[in-house]
Input
Amino acid sequence: MPRTRTRSRSRTAALTAAALLAAFLPFTASSASADDPAPVPVDRFEGEVPFANQPAEGIFTWGGSSTDNPTLTFKDRSDAPEGAKVLEGTYNISAYGGFSHDYAADQPGHDWTASKGIRFWWYGQNTAPLPPGSGKKINFEIKDGGASGEASELWTTSFTDDWEGWHQVEIPFADFVYRTDYQPVGGIDQVLGLDKMWGYALTLPTGAPGRFAMDDVELYGKADPSLKVSVATDAAVYPVKEGDSAHIKISLATTGAAPTEEPVTVAYTTEGGTADPAKDYTPTSGTVTFPAGSASGASQTVTVATTKDKVAAEEAETIPLKLTVTGAKPPAETPQVVINAHGLPYQNAKLPVKKRVADLLSRLSPAEKAGQMTQAERNALKSQGDIAGYGLGSLLSGGGSVPTPNTPEAWAKMVDSYQLRAQATRFQIPLIYGVDAVHGHNNVIGSTIMPHNIGLGATRDPALAEKTGAVTANEVRATGIPWDFAPCLCVSRDERWGRTYESYGEDAALVSSLETVIQGMQGRADGKDLSRNDKVLATAKHFVGDGGTAYGSSTTGSYTVDQGVTTVTRQELEAVHLAPFADAVKRGIGSVMPSYSSLDIIGDDEGPVKMHADAAMINGVLKDRMGFKGFVISDWQAIDQIPGDYPSDVRTSINAGLDMIMVPTNYQTFTATLQDEVKAGRIAQSRIDDAVSRILTQKFQLGLFEKPYADTANLSKVGSADHRAVARTAAAESQVLLKNTGNVLPLKPSQKVYVAGSNADDLGNQAGGWTVTWQGGSGKTTTGTTILDGIKKDVTDPTALTYSKDASAPTTGYDVGVVVVGEKPYAEGIGDVGNGHTLALTAADQAAIDKVCAAMKCAVLIVSGRPQLIGDQLARTDALVASWLPGTEGDGVADVLYGKKAFTGQLPLTWPKSESQLPINVGDATYDPQFPYGWGLTTLKKTPPGGEVTLRALALAANFVKADSPAGKEIATAARQIVQQKIETHLTQATSKPFADADHLLLTGDLKGAIAKLTAAYRAA
Output
């Protein structure tokens, strides 16, 4: 634990008192010794380190929202322990918040290896006084290795503010532990090297306003030699067949890769475990020695031999190899040899899955069943040994939870390391690892990033949607991950929702038509393709109604729409929100994730019910009525939002039909609570057995028992040219041409082009949220081509192209301007309108449009996850394109700009005139948008002549073909072109409503009705 020393007045007084005390006592309370080096200052808070952000050195605040950031100031105080000033601050934190001191990122990291620990003065607020240990807890962390303070590895400890007045907190480096709930770059090597340090951070208490004062952060003492040298084994688990030998490699690691200064000895002995030394293995013991001067990486091998005991069927047995280390830091845990389970019926791949599940289920203990129902975030593991210790069924990587380096190869290696841990359980049940690959394997740098779902909705191309699913599955499975939390089958009814771009559109018929993505991911509906090395288990989310939450109904933090309440009639619920899930079940979807939101069905007198607690919907509708056979996985910590205490949350959600809980951090409490609830009879054993059976069924179908580790045969395909070609096609087909006065588009390669706007050359912005990190980020966050890159490839003369982001370059002498504007990345409720976001274009974007379009013919592209209010700028543009979030392949956007491919996209959402119109959707009684649902001009072919005469002929032909046949699509396209040509830019309520209704009817298969609606729009124009 950190040690503290009280200070009542000044450092001088404290030192004087210590000197006087030394005259009467043989030693003082100070931890300093005569040969300790002088302290090394880190922060004196005299202003020598400013308030600043990376890459410069500085102190800065952070928090879950802007209101969670503490306030800081350098304050003159007469009682300052050192110097004249201290750091003072106030805070009122609801989620999380604190402050950091980062060293400059453009300078080398600092070397702290010579010191024993870090210490600082803290002004205690415990005026009660309360007993020691009962005050507020403050977390303190240091930043080790990596590229900078914000891309380092975090090591943490805490101290309790249980004093009054100044006291000095001393924390030996040996007290810091690897932070398991969050790592900025997913962790590095889990070794506290201390030779490349980037600073420190404090996380302040939540729940009530507070204030603090701090002074004189410094390094103190002489380093513990054992911190410079550590002993490691090449693995923690060594599975072997009965009768084979395990070879444990023991190696040294030194700080800075320096040779050892002292000898290191490692005594080893086989001790404990579940294997019997009399018949299962040959006991072994001994010592290996690394002499002084041994190089970092030096290794020796210990062999443990197992024997055949002639028992035909056995569960796995463990043989721990206890290591006693002298002269170095020992391994964090004891390595284990595991004699593999063998001869058990569930291991027989020739048996039907149902029989394998029944056999394995019959063998599991209550604790093992609880473990199978638990999903933890990988960074939340207190120790990787907890995978076996708690028998965890699943791990996940949340958005941005990535290995270092963030490469496909590192992902496969990381997932395999977790799977190896599961081999130390009795029945060696493999993990099912999950990830949010919502538009490609989007957490992985260099992967193929597809357009977000809203762009795929604009393509109206089920075959293409299936290809994007297949590419995503291929890349995800190649990295050892068999489970994808996608697709989102939400029907977005209000574009103020921050998750709008995760939806295929506002029409359930459109969403259902693109569920071919499920076959792309999973293969055949019977699940027989799931064991292939290019398929993954898909997840239909979020059940049900997450796209219908009302503005202002959310109670989550500062969210306005996300996780709010969906209030609908039962008829609307069935037609709009449930229909896509019914189709997904028919397609064999393997898992379903409920929504954070609440459902309020008008007329049932129950009021809003959290979806994670809605047994009528999950058990009654999804499982019983729809016949869903997969398993239900909760969303991130979502059961905690159910009213009641934690045991109530657990039993309510499990009894409602949830099979696995994404805990994701407190897996210890969850597994214990679940077992307690079953033991008390509040959750039936049959409900547990049903949940575990559903989970095991999918694990068997995925082939994980036979092949738990990554099949890396397809690793070279991650981000490959073939995969990017699919994404490029999707980007091209997702572009929606809303206006094209004077046929400005397509451009000609010979034209002199002026390119401007915030999103013309920003890969991160065009990819959007859920790209590399949860919220995404601007700039070159991954590999790909920007829209500007694509345009440059299509211009005949490179000197005939000028790019000026803010349109500050001269605008004379150009044939055409291309202004690319829109949103910056966001995800979930962080992106809700009213939560720091708006649908209006920024002032800079508007200014760029105004300047370029006043000087030349111009095409404006809006790169966004939802419609933007174009307002006054619309009249100034010659061409307008809804470019959505096209992903990493900006070449695809250039393909339609230059006519290599035709514009064929159609609006998946109604484009409003103003925010006051929202929500506005196809089918509304009053419907007068800027552009209607389904609108989209095409450059595919010339508009057929003949006007209404031709429409009548098309209506007659519609009687004899199906809407989704090639002939039916030709009829619909011709009719749309005739109508859109007549309407041009003169959209009115009389034309927009039948036009939007026609597109809905086409998606439902009613070609004849659609042509009738288009004819009505033509007549109203």
Remarks:
- The CA atoms of residues 897 and 1002 lie 27 Å apart.
- Residues 3-31 have pLDDT under 50 and may be disordered.
- The radius of gyration is 32 Å.
